[in-house]
Amino acid sequence: MSNGMKKIEDLLKRKRTRQALDEKTLAGVFLEAAKEEIKNFGSEDIQEIKLKNKILYIKTAHPVVSSELFVRREKILEKTNEMAGSQEIERIMVG
């Protein structure tokens, strides 16, 4: 991580004063959770992340990445919500 980037934990501490986390913050939390679960996973593997009605929609750069995320989506969902400190996401859709 470069010196200019902030840690997810620091961002979450500041955001917790709000009702819900914004899409950009949740995307960062999701990426951190996915990196813990999938070896050699990085943000370059994701083309797009959208949040709508507590469903996180993930568009990947490669079918193999989609497959890995699909298989591990429940564990990643659990870790994402745990890191966020609340039930921010109910489902992850991979495509």
Walk me through this protein's architecture.
The chain is of the alpha+beta class. It has one domain. 47% of the residues lie in helices and 18% in strands. The protein has three helices and three strands. The chain has helices at 8-15, 23-37, 63-84, and strands at 46-52, 55-60, 91-94. The chain has a three-stranded mixed sheet, covered by helices on one side. The chain is globular. The mean pLDDT is 86.
The total beta strand count reads 3
β-strand amount: 15-25%
User: Which structural category do the helix and sheet elements fall into?
Assistant: alpha+beta
Oligomer: single chain
Main sheet characteristics: 3 strands, mixed
What would you say about this model in short?
The chain is an alpha+beta fold. The chain has one domain.
Characteristic terms for this protein:
single chain; 95 residues; alpha+beta; 3-stranded mixed beta sheet
Topology:
Elements: H1 8-15, H2 23-37, E1 46-52, E2 55-60, H3 63-84, E3 91-94
Parallel strand pairs: 2-3
Antiparallel strand pairs: 1-2
